[in-house]
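Notes continue from the previous slide.

Worked example: a multi-chain complex. Inputs as given:
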Amino acid sequence: MPRSILNLGAHLRPLFFCAYLATQLTLLVRAQRSPDFVFGFQMFNASSELKISLSRKVRRRGRSRIVRVQDGAWETKDPSGMRRSFRWQDRIRYSRLAVLDRYVHAAYGLDAQLFRLQAALHDCVMHLPGDDETEALIAEVDTIENGRAGGHVRLQADRP
Amino acid sequence: MNATTGIWRRFFAEERDAYVLGLLRLAFSALLFFNLLRTALEFDRDGFFGDYFHMPMISEAWVPSRAGYQLLLGVQGLASLLAFVGLWPREALLVASSTGLYLLTCDRLQYHNNRYTLLLLGFLLSFMPCDRSFLITRGRFHTLPHGQRIAPTFARRLFQIQVSLVYLGSTSGKLIDADWRSGQVLLMRFAKAPEICAQHGLILPAWMIALLGSAWFASLAAKAAITNELLIAFGVWQPRTRRVALWLGVGFHFWIELTANVELFSWVMAASYFAFVTPEIRERRFEYAPSQTRAAAMARFVALADWCARFERTPLRPSATHSAPFYVTNREGRRATGVLGLSQLAEAIPLLFPLWPLLALYAKFTTKARARPA
């Protein structure tokens, strides 16, 4: 008979069984409170869409201004006067958030994608080496919730 | 109190034939390999996820480096292959699924329910005696003798519970969401179907476009989907309803596979149904007349497609060949031929299973019609 370390002894089986079930049930319950229902088996849970428009808050001549980002790309000059290019999509490859100014399907629902977008803005603004101009990244998000016009959401990530 | 303790003990000490679990291992190790292949292709196309925006569910310090990630993908691939061919299959399954689960926690953006389900079921499978049959490396002797296949199968129950939890998790979200219950979510999906079909060169007829755009149809479909998931989640636990529940599940996932991009989800759930098959084998009989070409061809088909070893195949004695070309005896001992026989065959042969209710219904009505007096 094949021997395996995975043949649990009689006393270990109930322990394993209860530990596994308790973990699964905890994850299932916690998933309901998570914006993207991770570990919750929530399939096909929404037919919502979102459109992200990206802007930068920049400081020029001592004043802060909001500058619209076209196609996710922008240019700045570093302290040495050299031109540097940046692209939203260089850092954000996740397809639901990489597309700008066009409606895309909000997989796992609007809350999930807005939660991820906030993290993406924060991540992007933290990875702009040589861009001394950008103070914050701002996403203006138009939403369509299951076919009905949803709200307009503004998310912002400031550079520390 | 004693009765409860007895049930508890019996539950954990249950020993059954592990033949079908080997088949389950083949299916899941293949699916784990295909899942790995997809990850490797994504890595090749998009690069290492850690080099750009990702959302770890564990501490960033626990996310592997590029080289570490490549190594883990290699380990996962090798482990899936070892599990498939039957070399340290359970340990290999544990390594493949645990590595996958760990990598899933490294980036929330790569989380998908189908991937998580596959990895969880693969993990649970490693605790089952799935190393006693379909051991490809043993060649013709790929299955151990009956005595060595009898083993504790408590983890099979956990696997079954997990399958039910997947459906319950899915359906609970739909029940809570008013837009899902009312059909609004599906209506939006259906409304896009004509456009998507047209992109693939399929022009839907006007009546179908009207149907897909109607609120009542979407509402009906939503309620049917919710009911269906509940029926599967609970129906698989009752021997009387299990077959119907599994058939509904097959149809449900076939429909999902046709209409949505769900990666390996349909295959994972279809494969998981093997865990609900009665473990004992050769409890049915298929008798055939070897001298008749069609009957002999059917016998060959049964030999090839009877993956769960449901049937004992026996040639009819020459003296009995005048009766019928074949007979199928089910587990309850009902011996039948013709359409009824075919339906009894279809209920146990995975490839024919989708046809089972049609054949059973046809057999029921034609048998009644024949029984009616002239």
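Summary box: Chain B has three domains: 14-152, 169-275, 284-371. Residues 300 and 313 of chain B are 10 Å apart (CA to CA).
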